[in-house]
Amino acid sequence: MTSVEATAQDPTGPEPGGYAEARLRLLQQEPWSGPSRRSGLSALTDQWLAGLFAAAAQETGVRGAALVAVGGYGRGELSPRSDLDLLLLHDGKARPRALGALADRLWYPVWDTGVALDHSVRTPAEARKVASEDLKAHLGLLDARLVAGDAGLLAGLRTSVLADWRNQAPKRLPQLHALCRERAERAGELRFLLEPDLKEARGGIRDATALRAVAASWLADAPREGLDGARRRLLDARDALHLVTGRATDRLALQEQAQVAARLGLLDADALLREVYEAARVVAYAGDVTWREVGRVLRARAARPRLRGLLGARGAAAAAERTPLAEGVVEAEGEAVLALAARPERDPVLPLRLGAAAAQAGLPVSLHAVRRLAAQGRALPVPWPAEAREELLTLLGAGEPMVGVWEALEAEGLITRLLPDWERVRCRPQHNPVHTWTVDRHLIETAVRASALTRRVGRPDLLLMAALLHDIGKGWPGDHSVVGETIARDMAARVGFDAEDTAVLGTLVRHHLLLVDTATRRDLDDPATVTAVARAVRSTGTLEILHALTEADALATGPAAWSTWRGSLVADLVRRVAAVLSGAPPADPEPDLPTAEQERLALEALRTGEPVLALHTRQEEDDAVGVELVVAVPDQPGVLPAVSGVLALHRLTVRAADLRFLELPDHLGEVLVLRWRVAAQYGALPQAARLRTDLVRALDGSLDVPAKLADREAAYPRRRGVVPPPPRVTAFPDVSPLATVLEVRAPDAVGLLHRIGRALESSGVRVRSAHVSTLGANAVDTVYVVDPDGKPLPPAAAAAVAARLQSALT
């Protein structure tokens, strides 16, 4: 006898304390986990509740009653903090007072233990009626199990409930499918969430339970292979989460992931997430296949009488004919399937041809077809023949329909058979909250986005392949762009691209972040910036593809990664680089000629000796409201920290900043002009007059900006979670002949730019320009600094300034 069984069978008596102690002992037995612990906890609870029921029935004299477990408890799957779903079933003959006393003697001891309880008292007829009106109640009764009492009473109810479920399947299953879709909309896709809800999210425990209900209808059944194992892994993860947190929670929060992984014997949080994502993928895919089959069966049932009446037997047979899609591929009953004459064992291109034809037609791929290909298909020769490469590119260029087809091929291992390196990125989490998807799904989404941009490039095939491969290096240690270049070259050669195209794909993967990083973090008026990009890209054709890839990658990353502003900066950089690659010399920086408004503001600042500003509010494609702020200040120390600090105090988020010295015509003088792109964190935008008043006070010292920001930070402490890495400041003394470039990477926080400005002021350097880039919770701010004479800093001085700045930020 195992220790769990022994614990479950030890007499605990009817007292809550005895059950609670035995329950705690069971949960603390480390060797026992997973299904054995869940079943052991259920058996222990059964024994305790059976004792309670027997004693209560004897005391109250109630006969013809049964205590029934439903839901997860009915399935014998109690997690450490699961609630108890109980039904007190009775034949209706007992007096109400006696029945109420029996219920009290059952429910109150449960409540005394602190275990959550969902309970009801009904006759079989009442339970059946409630089930007919409440889908969730009906689902719970499908797993009803006797704990104690009259077994015949439950047997009759189970028979009628199952019969009702099967008879009402044409109505009930669409309702259940709608419930699953609604839950998915609310909780999201489990395998793409950094903090997933293991129960409610799509591909989670509830979806797996719903598939059991579909199977009970006898209308359709889920693909069984791997499904039970996936469900078990999700339940195991929830058990560990309950034990780590001590709470009945289903959300796998960041701060608990490492402990949950350790309790499950996994290496780290990444290993945990990958296992959870893998399980969710299996459940979600099984759900897709199952619900598609449910729809097919229901449509066939609805159409069969009508077809027979209108067309006769011959017409019904004609309606079932197959429509050719490609060689060896046909459409049948709304799916792409293999033709009767298809021979997977002789046609190694067939999996790609099936996928391409299905995606182009907007059809799902038949599960039977994919499994047949996985079992009988031949491996492609290396390098691939031209037809295989073309079919892959056709699949990638199909747009959104490609996603479901790719997942169907991947679910049966066909993708990793075709592209072995794919295994390293499959279901790999990305902890940067800017990213919406796992690495593999991000690559697919980038291809979807790229398919809409193929008309912009001369080589759409290279764009689509680069989209699929640009982050392939994230499955290996090191800089993913550098590592990815080597892997991409190998994969491109495997797929059959020639040496020249393989080299271009390697360049695209190596530099897929070059345009957006340069455009948002470097001074585009600096000839060295444009020259460096041109040297890396080398040709206008590669630049054209890289431009489209940059946009597709950003759009596939998430809403924080792309905007009208970023797009305009990248387009400006591409225009400048294209001119250089076409033979034009890098343009010398033009003098900053003021606009009419800037000249007016600068003259007013010189006349008054105080800052003046203008606010412009505009509607934008990617933002509800964008604000452009122009500030003109007579040259003096402390301008950058003062302005950035005042903006932070007014809860304005800086999205972009440009700081330049403006020489006014006719030698009127030099004015510092700061152009800001900001947005209100929440609430209304501040008035320009209030901003100007606070800026004047900040510059004259009467407003203590650092103290105010510190008070705000203390009032809103950081939430618990993963501790971000410390700030890092890097000096690039040779990037520009005009200034020294300092790049600051730090967690985004209130007043970050203010702190940077103060640290640089104390270092005795002048800021020539600043470029602010924020992605989610991380900021990458680049400042161009010069010495008091307006010259770049020597390398040693630049390193010292970077070290002081990093120390100040830490």
UniProtKB/TrEMBL annotation:
Keywords per UniProt: Hydrolase, Magnesium, Multifunctional enzyme, Nucleotidyltransferase, Repeat, Transferase
Q: How is its activity regulated?
A: Uridylyltransferase (UTase) activity is inhibited by glutamine, while glutamine activates uridylyl-removing (UR) activity.
Under Gene3D superfamilies, the record lists:
cca-adding enzyme, domain 2
Single GO MF descriptor: [protein-PII] uridylyltransferase activity
Question: Which residues lie within the region annotated Uridylyltransferase?
Answer: 1-324
Which cofactor names does the annotation list? Mg(2+)
What domain of life does the UniProt record list for this protein's source? Answer: Bacteria
Catalytic reactions on record? [protein-PII]-L-tyrosine + UTP = [protein-PII]-uridylyl-L-tyrosine + diphosphate; [protein-PII]-uridylyl-L-tyrosine + H2O = [protein-PII]-L-tyrosine + UMP + H(+)
Q: PROSITE patterns from the entry?
A: ACT, HD
- Domain ACT residues, every copy: 628-712, 741-810
Task: Quote the EC number.
Answer: 2.7.7.59, 3.1.4.-
So what family is this one in?
Belongs to the GlnD family.
Briefly, what is this protein's role?
A: Modifies, by uridylylation and deuridylylation, the PII regulatory proteins (GlnB and homologs), in response to the nitrogen status of the cell that GlnD senses through the glutamine level. Under low glutamine levels, catalyzes the conversion of the PII proteins and UTP to PII-UMP and PPi, while under higher glutamine levels, GlnD hydrolyzes PII-UMP to PII and UMP (deuridylylation). Thus, controls uridylylation state and activity of the PII proteins, and plays an important role in the regulation of nitrogen metabolism.
User: What is the protein name for this chain?
Assistant: Bifunctional uridylyltransferase/uridylyl-removing enzyme
Q: Which gene encodes it?
A: glnD
